[in-house]
Amino acid sequence: MDPATDLAKLEGEPLLNQARDRGVPTSPGPGRRHVPALWAALALASAAPLGAQDLKETTTASPAGATRPQVAATAATSEIRIDGRLDEPMWQTSPAAADFVQAEPREGLPATEATDVWVAYDEENLYVAARLHDADPSGIVVNDIKKDFAEGSQDVFTVILDTFQDRRNGYVFMTNPGGARGDRQIAGEGREVNGSWDAIWLVETRIDDDGWTLEMAIPFRTLRFDPERSGTWGINFSRYIRRKNEQVYWAPVPRSYNIMRLSLAGDLTGLPQASAGRDLRITPYALGRTVRETGAESFDNDAEFGGDLKFGVTDGLTLDLTANPDFAQVEADVQRVNLTQFSLFFQEKRDFFLENSGIFYVGDLARNVRISNIPRADEDLVVFFSRRIGIGAEGEQIPIYGGARITGRVPGGVSLGALWMRTQELDENPESDYGVVRLRKNLFAGSDIGGIFMVRNSVGRADDHNFVYGLDSYIRFPGDVDWSAYGLFTETPNISGGEYVWRTSLNREGNFHHIKLGVMQIGEGFNSDLSFYRRVGVRKYFIDWGIRPRPESLRRRGIREMHPHIVWNYFENLGGRKEAYRLHTGYTFFFESGAFAELSVNPVFERIEDEFEIDPGAAPIQPGEYGWAEWQLRGNTDSSKPLSVSATGILGGLWSGDQRTLNATVTAKPNYHFRGEVGLSRTDASLPEGDFVKTFWTGRVNYSFHKDMFIDALVQYDPGSGLFNSNVRFNFIHHPLSNLYIVWNEQRFTTGIDQNLNPGRSFIIKVTQMFAF
Q: Model pTM?
């Protein structure tokens, strides 16, 4: 039976939507009145129906001496063919990991569908096989077969391996009934997530009358581990049953966390004394390009050559080298409406910088795992921001000569990350070296301390450099409480005094109640060429608090959970004067289908020291004090359906006037091959400085021919300027970790004085080939 044939017939309903956002909270600005009584009344209403059972929380702390679930790996006595059929004799006779337990919707109860998992090994590979029983196979949901698929909208099976058995770091492997592959590295039980880590491994799946089956082969050389330790690793398995909105684990995990909570994982025993090997991979590339800039008369043609090398220096350390890296295949940044005085934050998308990027992270995270499995940084200060390397202030690409990175573990429970890159001179950007060194030492019960050193140095210019160095800590206490803190100092020529930043926060994450509060202070002389930050000379106070009641009376009506919450950020200068605040107060409803809706009010205050332009058609916003309040309604429909909608509407103030803002996306997924999105971001503003309308249209299309061949298109249009941008990328994985990319870019003006200019165009072909030794 070919799953690609059968999956076209499948329909299904959703699993718990992992994309839940707490929002950003509230307080009144001058001249705007806030009504906190509304939120308080709703909170009381939600809590009123609760009984003692509804308020009960599950702690993640394991009692001393508690028994972990175990599964034994069995030596393969014959060849295991990775075809998803489970027809090898050993899968019938070996002991299975079973008795999965719900985290959603009924934490602690047995899973409604049985799951059996087997683990085996030979000299080269670790094998995982699973039978995922399903009483209604026609209800299995598959929406995507692309590499690193979005797991929140379909049925998924996941395994996590803690190869050093330190209960905090691991490797994640995921698949769905269509056989899509997803893999990640995680550290600190999910405080650091490397979603761009790519491993060489195989998986095949089958759908039959009893559900679906899978077989995975994970080469030992793909993993880092200590061959001298006993043959036991940490392990856990999870399964999403999408139409039931049900999330289950083999080793139970509370619903406030996810599979990355390795301190709760089980044990994989019976492993051989294998060696990871050195895993030498060499990946050269060749690229051909023809480019015409917007308005130019002719095309420029060029070719590029370069490559990457990956080598396992020790059983715990991996060295990566890159020469003349090119990122032509990376998706363009999505344009967004900017109504602030600051630059927008854009995520890193380049693979070399994304891989193992988590090890360089400093600070705590917005770790509401129900919103996303990927933690989010505090954007008021991202200590190491890799987009400072090779990308200029206007988004232009700065060529990179090459670089090196070494990451992993050294003896004594120490994690190491070191990065060096050299960029070429381009316009106002001098030829520069960039370096980062990060160390972290594991302590008791999931805690750690660490240090970081960063440098940018202009080549040949002793007076142009920047140093950043500091210490950080993460301490976990009993009762799901953790404390995070760091302090940094900077050194830059011609700057003296106030060259520091410190931040501390206390966090408690529970099923019913969560709270995080803290403070950050940035000195007036703080200057880091490798960080993202918006303000200096300020002190920030922040709190993120909420409850998650689940009254049975509402669950019978399709509402699984409510979430009254606040996320308040308040800024003052170092003399105590109020500089800014955003006080989000929201009330969210999560539905059994995985949809959600949220109503919030968001008082905002900003003090402006220098004028800035908000729109070319309006006069600049002048220095002064501005306060306003925004009413916001947002939500998502069921993301697993063939047609889904996400939307945010805002009414209220904006600087000295008013706004009406709509951000909406409609997504169509008629089958697991095709995904299309149309998005609108529109703000209609009325200000004394001038009325204006800012609009961006965005269209995305993805078509997956099969698991190793995709085409993606991104189209963006700004009616105000008449600017049209398109980015079309074809990707064929012709061999493991080897790719063919074909990329087409176009930029043109459809209106205005520039509409007669020749459109800017580029056509790029890039081929990579990985050689493993």
A: 0.85
